[in-house]
């Protein structure tokens, strides 16, 4: 079932949580709402679920207006960050809850409930815990049970609010892969909220990047990562180095450095170039260099080597990531004078860019 | 004992603290009980049975526990409601109402007794309207229940309130998403979560009510076989220098109280195990 969000507006007192947001979720896709805390992503998710009512705008389920449909009739599965399992019920009763609260006329029989719950517990690979209580489970197990519980009512839409937020790194990774494969099998329209860009890029079909109550960019993970539409998206998706320069005749220039731009900002003038650490090459030759400086720090643990260079022009540290081979080839030492050259830049007019702080 | 002494703790002095607290508990709680049983042991079995099965004594014990039970059930219902309202609805003067709940704790019980008697006496503020309806409150078992409800209320409110406050909104939201209606959410999600606290609160109210004296004697009227409570029997026996008789009644009360508490503790333990807290 597709979801359409039209011009949603939501304020909490003086705070604008959502400012005229429109979005379409295609049927069967797994969509991530990504953004820093307070960007409105959770509010949007809760409005889709019906847990929050928008001040203005519409929510359409499969083309039909559902703005005023009550939560309990929307047929959405909602998974909470902190699981929200019913502590006084066994795992089995938790999963069965949605079936047993149905009106008598449409409530499945005892045997059918049993069969469906066990099937779901097998799906989340926890059928051996049917008689346990939530307090006896680990975080990852609880979240899988919460997911099974929300799937028990055969929802048309699955909504997940930071589903892995409360779990530790390892479990998180396993669980999001597992969610991806589960979605591949079930193809239920799903929206999940996260502030972790890695999670969003790895799991989802499409990513919606949000900030301050509006949508910055919508696209596939590749598009978002390779062609960020705004400075905010560029900065939010990972570490970047900032260079303040100019755009002139389709080139980004900074001192002697000039790089032709494929999609140059229309007007010339002040501009900011973003370069990711792995797009920054270190060399001992001055040719084609964007900046130069002194190696200040080398972090050589794992397959890649992080090098921090104090730029002579601005005094700001630049971060570059090298392969181990390249690092050995250069034989870098602390205090060496080196040049950096970008292999790839994203350029935005200076007015749009501001230092983003998480 | 070995197991306890070998445990290491950040704070030193476990042995000393443990010893002192055991001694204190023994001195303050267990010693009076022992004295009670010892004194009663001075009677012959026939005397003991004769004393505690006397018509007036049986009636008073039945009244004490019956009224206490009725009051704690009433308190469980309305105390829960009050705690619910205090936690869930922001209304002007909520802090005032919240403070008001503690009044029965703070008020000397005799003052409460006199106040209630003035209210419910046949010519009192409320009593004069109930009288024509044929409803007598003061000087009847009903009056005793009213007094016990009054003194027991804070116990229920104060135990249920924090549990309701800690309950995540998400539980209700999760239940709503799963299609549950309001009543189903209350009955299947909220109430079971609050039940252990409610039982605890009602038990404390009950325990307090069985021994309550000050607030009850004024409104009870102390009519033998009708509105005479067990603590009063004990006192009147003491007044007649019948110390053994008084102790005999006390021992029976103690035994019944103990049985009640034991049963309720067992219930609590069972509930806690169901929540997986025993792990």
TrEMBL record, chain A:
Record-annotated ABC transporter domain positions: 3-237
Keyword Transmembrane part of the UniProt annotation: no
Single Gene Ontology MF annotation: ATP binding
Pfam families (UniProt xref): ABC_tran (PF00005), CysA_C_terminal (PF17850), TOBE_3 (PF12857)
Keywords assigned: ATP-binding, Cell membrane, Membrane, Nucleotide-binding, Sulfate transport, Translocase, Transport
UniProt cross-references to InterPro entries, sorted A to Z: AAA+_ATPase (IPR003593), ABC_SmlMolc_Importer (IPR050093), ABC_transporter-like_ATP-bd (IPR003439), ABC_transporter-like_CS (IPR017871), CysA_C (IPR041193), Mo/tungstate-bd_C_term_dom (IPR008995), P-loop_NTPase (IPR027417), Sulph_transpt1 (IPR005666)
Superkingdom of this protein's organism: Bacteria
Name of the featured protein: Sulfate transport system ATP-binding protein
Automatic annotation (TrEMBL), chain B:
Keyword Transmembrane helix attached: yes
Pfam families in UniProt: BPD_transp_1 (PF00528)
Superkingdom, taxonomy of origin: Bacteria
Major localisation: membrane
InterPro entries: CysT_permease, MetI-like, MetI-like_sf, Sulph_transpt2
Keyword terms, alphabetized: Membrane, Sulfate transport, Transmembrane, Transmembrane helix, Transport
Residue stretches spanning the membrane: 12-41, 61-87, 99-121, 133-157, 189-207, 213-235, 247-271
Domain ABC transmembrane type-1: start-end pairs: 61-264
UniProt cross-references to PROSITE patterns, sorted A to Z: ABC_TM1 (PS50928)
Signal sequence extent: none
Subcellular location field: Cell membrane
Subunit comment: The complex is composed of two ATP-binding proteins (CysA), two transmembrane proteins (CysT and CysW) and a solute-binding protein (CysP).
Described function: Part of the ABC transporter complex (TC 3.A.1.6.1) involved in sulfate/thiosulfate import. Part of the ABC transporter complex CysAWTP (TC 3.A.1.6.1) involved in sulfate/thiosulfate import. Probably responsible for the translocation of the substrate across the membrane.
Family: Belongs to the binding-protein-dependent transport system permease family. CysTW subfamily.
Protein name: Sulfate transport system permease protein CysT
